[in-house]
Design goal:
The complex is a heterodimer. Chain A is 46% helix and 16% strand. Chain A is α+β, with helices and mostly antiparallel strands. Chain A starts with a strand and ends in a 13-residue tail after the last helix. The longest helix of chain B has 23 residues, at 2-24. Chain B has two domains: 32-233, Thrombin, subunit H; 241-429, Protein Transport Mog1p, Chain A. Residues 1-24 of chain B have low confidence and may be disordered. Chain B is α+β, with helices and mostly antiparallel strands. The chains are: A alpha+beta, B alpha+beta. Chains A and B meet through helix 1, helix 6, strand 12, helix 7 and helix 8 of A and helix 6, strand 20, strand 21, strand 22 and helix 7 of B. Strand 12 (292-293) of chain A pairs parallel with strand 20 (357-364) of chain B, so a sheet runs across the interface.
Amino acid sequence: MNAPFYVEVLARNGEVRHRQRVDALPIRIGQGYDNDFILDDRHTSAHHAIIERNEAGGLEVIDLGSRNGVVHKGKRQARLTIDGNTVFRLGHTNLRVRAADFSVADEMRDTTFHYWEGLPPALTGLALMLSLALMNTWIADTEKAESIHYVTGLVGMLGIGLLWSGGWALANRLFGGQTRFGRHLFIAASGLVVIEIVSLLEALAAYAFSLEIFTRYGSHVAVAIAAGMVYFHLTTINPNSPRRRFAVVCALLFCLGSGMVLVVNFQSRGHLADELYMSELFSPGLRASSGKPVEQFIAESGQLEATVDAERSKVVSDEGEEDDED
Amino acid sequence: MRFQLFLALSLSCVCAAAAAAEEKVQLPAPSSSAQRLYSHAKADIVQLRSLLRNGRTQSSVGSGFLIGTGNLAVTNYHVMSQIALDPDTYVGEYVDTNGKRGEVKLLAVDVLHDLAVVSIDRKGGGFFNVPDQLPQLVQGQYLYSLGNPLDLGFAISEGAYNGIVNRSFYDQLMFTGPINSGMSGGPSVTVDGRVAGVNVSKRLDGELVSFLVPVRFVRDLLKKVAGQKQVPEDFKLVVGQQLLEHQKTMMERLEGTPLTFKELKPYKMPVWESDQVRCWGRSNSSQSKPYSIDQVNCAMESALFVSDRIQTGHISIQHKLLQSSELGVLRFSSLASNSFKNQGGGGHKDTRYTAPKCVEQFVTNEKLPMRAALCVRAYRKFPGLYDFTLHTASTDSGEMSLQSRIETSGVSYQSGLRIARIFLENAGRESKQ
């Protein structure tokens, strides 16, 4: 513990807000201007505490009889032995004192792609989103082409994309100290594009091989991709946190989202699947499975009778009486 | 705008002319036969109400008439349907022309012809009789219809008999006179007081086009009541049996009708076209749209009334041809997929039907490859009855899609499958050239 010493004011998240060099002990701390370290905190006394060397050669904070005292880990202390990692609170101010010989952590490997920050990912994300919106509008716009459809499609996508990425950027600023808006925009755009591509592939696979399961439960894959998107947003905010924690959070999010899809489907339609039957139709060239004879289809339909009858025997409360659709 | 103005003018002219006529010409005396009939009949017509057991507020009203000097009254099934299907919630009550009230007991129903027989605690005066020998009606003959229209009070209205209509599944008489709701179940009589039929319905899209149930079905139901040892405990079972009977007749009738093929170039799709099942075509190809839709819709003109929320015993067929050479393969598949999507749902909480279940597959007959989905739901209250919907889409072209939707309601499982099979086997297209 050698001079000079550095008194640091910390934010609640541990970030250093302000640092002051003090050349010698003792260090007097308080609101008054005759202190070595002046606190701009109405909840501290004019001469609040003093830092001195104790018998063991370490540092010690001594309360000078203030009203709010010196608090460490939620407990008020008259005398507190501190080292370079002890954070104590005077009034509303969190402080830490480090000596010049404090040994800092090893240099971290830099995993950030610095060229992929700011404008490049932002512009790429924007381009991805806009082309996705244009593509979707174009495919769905089977009526007479109207430019207004494209404009509303673009504006809608842009609005949602910017809001979403803006929210993450704000969180990043709060918890990670920087916004990284471009990165978040890129992540959001990529997520949307992946969802779109995967759902198209699912529809194609479902149609080609008559595997209805792909479109029947397609929304769960979309939920999974969205959860993955959140994972990347989280790691962007805090790249140094253990990744496993984020993975667990996202897995939970996926379960929640998936569960909600199932519940909503069951409540509104009486089955867990997203659709009653597959409605995707593509051009005949994309079909890989052959048609069954009518005989076989009718035979399969015959087997449904038992299932439907089993459903019939289930008791229904009269609540459903209101759900009249006719 | 000019047309509307003209119309308004012409209407006002008519009114002025009528007013002028009223001043000059004396009105004819009220039809003496209607006066005489009403005064004789009024003791034997009743209003029938179904009331909520809880609180006894009225939930639906109709009319009825006492047969002979007994305590049996005839009305429509649809007037009594709540009491038949849900006797725990509803109870029947009658009010006669003197304001006397009393309990109504349901004895028999005939869902197919929409008739019911009830007993009440007073006797008839013998005005209305249903003898074995029924009156022969001549087209143009006057009939007088009795009842309590819109719960306003007892009334008699005059109209002409205009023959038997076979558009509905079971024979009905066409009556060109005013019948309003509330008169349902009331009698229509000839000038000499003989019962010709029972008021049942009217066309909402026409003027004074009403329908009567022929009296011979009343006679048959009364005979059944006479032979009936005890009143059925659960009318739901009776209704269910009659619905099964109906679907059998319906299937026989359909299968007796040869299939007609409607051309939606290049496809040839099967339909049944008959007096009961009528077809309408529609096309909406327009310059402003990059695709065209041609449609053939066929539907049975009548359905059986089971309750306010269930109409059944019905079949409808829709063939729809979407085509576009402008849209390109990708956008056309989006259009076709959207059109093939089903709109209906029906949750598991519906008290009438189970949630639908489907079987789906690529199906090929010799002529046409298709995507087919057959969805079935069961009636909760009527065992053995199902609604079937067959959705098919042709899969032979990237620029055309022939989509069909065949809905069959209130049929047995076997009948539903049979109809699906007939359509799947007969859908086709002309050979490609």
